[in-house]
What we know:
Residues 76-117 form a coiled coil. Keywords: Coiled coil. This protein has 128 residues and is an all-alpha fold. Helices cover 98% and strands 0% of the residues. The chain has one helix at 2-127. The protein is rod-shaped.
Amino acid sequence: MKAKISALTVISDDLQQIIADCEVEQEKRLRELEALYKGHFEEISDISKRLRVENGELKKRWLDGEAKASSFGQENSFLRRENDMMRQDLDKLKRNLEKKDREVSELKVEVTAQQLENQKISQSSNAK
């Protein structure tokens, strides 16, 4: 019986040593995994910070672009209205010019008629 107790004691001691070795090995693996995950977590955290900063910069550039586009749109609208007004003014000036050209032509005809009349009067006065 002592031999059985001695054998069981040896087996028990061996099992305790195996369990202790497994616990040490498991603790070592856990520390390695913790270090690995900590490194990944820090890397992901850094990437996240950089992406937030970049996102802020892109958002600012987008807002600046939107402001410029809005400004260009307003300026374009103003220039279109101004162009329409100038076109209307130009059309009005063209109509006035055409009217004045007709008046000048009519006056030339009248002046020519008057000159002819004056020549006739002058000739008939000279003939008398």
